[in-house]
Design a protein that fits this description.
It comes from Juglanconis sp. The protein is an alpha+beta fold. The chain contains seven helices and seven strands, in the order αββααββαββααβα.
Length: about 200
């Protein structure tokens, strides 16, 4: 029986030998990892739409390749630019020239423009002095920063939200009876106290 067993099943032992031998990897399953196209193609151009830097098959792919969040892309598809340098669309722009950048090169360019954008935004909002204007009296005061404004109002037992202030700088929207103006640029036209009260339903 022993001889018959070995003669009929020798191939099983041979297969097991190769499967377990450290110099072979026949028992390793390899799965190709590929992206599935989801949604429309996304294109990354310069602001003028003359240069195409990158295109993807989906929002998830551009996030994976370049780190641009889908919500950011959706905002840009509605007409906003990206970092004051790029234009993101879901339709190709005729006549645009392909930049022939690799994905890492595009990612590096985005990182560079992001640093410049954040630096510019920070300077615009916070490096210059800010003026507060009381809507009822028209009285103004100047402060070096939003933090200084918040601290000033604390002495008056008035709690101010710094994020709220940052959002309404150079607008006609009042906050707790005050308008906030940046000295960096000319402010938007301001409403007179009576007009402001009428627009807000009599509340300041």
């Amino acid at each position: 029986m022993g001889a018959e067993f070995y003669s009929n099943d020798y191939f099983l032992f041979l297969e097991q030998y190769y499967l377990l031998h450290k110099s072979f990897n026949l028992n390793t399953q390899r799965i190709v990892n590929f992206r599935v196209s989801q949604g429309n193609r996304i294109y990354l151009y310069d602001l003028e739409g003359r240069t195409l830097y990158y295109s993807s098959k989906s929002l998830s792919q551009i996030q994976g390749d370049l780190g641009i969040h889908p919500n950011t892309c959706k905002s840009c598809l509605k007409g906003n630019n990206y970092l004051n340098f790029f234009n993101i669309t879901d339709t190709p722009i005729e006549g645009a020239v392909l930049a022939n950048f690799t994905v890492p090169e595009v990612a590096s360019l985005i990182s560079e423009k992001k640093v410049l954008f954040l630096s510019s935004t920070s300077k615009t909002k916070f490096s210059k002095s800010l003026i507060i204007k009381e809507t009822e009296t028209g009285k103004t005061q100047e402060f070096p920063s939003i933090t200084a404004i918040v601290n000033y109002f604390k002495t008056l037992n008035i709690i101010m939200d710094r994020n709220k202030i940052a959002k309404i700088i150079n607008t006609s929207e009042s906050y707790k009876g005050y308008l906030f103006i940046s000295s960096l640029r000319d402010p938007l036209p301001l409403l007179e106290p009576a007009e402001l009260a009428e627009e807000e339903g009599g509340e300041s």
